[in-house]
Amino acid sequence: MDWQIATLKSIKMISNDIASLVLAFNNFGSYKAGQYCDIRLTAVDGYQTQRSYSIATPPSASKDGLEFGIQILPDGEVSSYLATLVPGDQLEIKGPLGGHFIWDESHDDDLVLIGAGSGIVPLYSMAQEFVLQNESQDLSFIISSKSLEDLAWKEQISEMSNSNKVIDTNIFLTRQYPPEWNESFTGRINLRRLQKLLNKKSRANTEIYICGRTQFVEDISTYCVDLGFDSQKVRTERYG
Ligand SMILES: Cc1cc2nc3c(=O)[nH]c(=O)nc-3n(C[C@H](O)[C@H](O)[C@H](O)COP(=O)(O)OP(=O)(O)OC[C@H]3O[C@@H](n4cnc5c(N)ncnc54)[C@H](O)[C@@H]3O)c2cc1C
User: Is the dihedral of CA 219, 224, 230, 235 positive or negative?
Assistant: First the structure.
């Protein structure tokens, strides 16, 4: 697969440290929810570096460009540079990439999406695609965020959940929460909390997608297997 040039259509902060970048392509081709792209930067002296970024846009709504949700790390070589771009700037990009962490309408199991921080990006694509495909099975979207201000696409996720009976969204706030926030959803997701949320799910007919930093993914996938879910149906994406 070759590198291609994409043009930045828009850039804006959508949480304390996550920026939404919408890129326009001449010809991107088809992809599945959960896939990602590599972005490559080249300095004037020829030094090159690249990083992977998941696609937030659901495949069925990608005609106006692809949205990415990029956590801006102040010392991050690539993310801090991406934060300085302005509409019209061009980037080298390769994709779609990734074949195991994907969801499409051919999957008929109940769906559980569990993400932390920027790890919600591919899950947000899956959740939107699930809605666009009018799926009738249950979707449980479980999110861990430092605070509400750190949660990307807060309004969109809330609107999606409120307007779809089959979607159950639960947000855990680990560091700061409004006074009225349900105490059961403050602090980290642990085995007991996950058990409560997933109690009624079929152990054999549920697909679970987990994404975020390595430790988060390791912990949550272990809990899921301990709770009796089929390990073949627990899919993970680690952001390092
Ligand atoms: C398949 C895949 C998909 C990914 N999708 C996304 C995505 O959609 N959005 C996104 O923001 N990132 C995503 N990542 C992570 C991304 O590729 C980079 O690793 C991340 O942007 C950091 O790159 P950087 O050059 O800015 O920082 P670097 O210069 O590589 O790292 C700077 C320092 O920050 C640390 N660090 C790296 N990541 C984090 C983090 N998340 N939080 C705190 N410290 C960190 C590093 O250990 C290092 O010490 C994805 C990774 C993979 C493998």
Answer: negative
Looking at the chain, list the stretches that DSSP marks H as alpha helix, in order from N- to C-terminal side: 79-82, 121-132, 154-162, 191-198, 214-226
Question: Are the beta carbons of 143 and 169 closer than 8 angstroms?
Answer: yes
| Cα–Cα nearest to 212, from 72, 118, 124 | 118
User: The tokens of 13 are what?
Assistant: 């902060």
Distance 178 CA to ligand 1 centre (A): 28
Pocket lining for ligand 1, CB < 6 angstroms:
36, 51-54, 69-71, 73, 75-80, 118, 121, 213, 237, 239-240
Which numbered atom of ligand 1 lies nearest the CA of 238? 53
Q: Against a cut of 0.85, is the pTM above it?
A: yes
DSSP letter for each residue of 214-225: HHHHHHHHHHHH
How confident is the prediction for the chain on average, in pLDDT? 96
pLDDT in tens, 55-68: 999 999 998 899 99
Q: How far is residue 31's CA from residue 136's CA, in Å, rounded to a whole number?
A: 22
Q: Ligand 1 mean position to 240 CA, how many Å?
A: 6
| SS3 of residue 168 by DSSP | strand
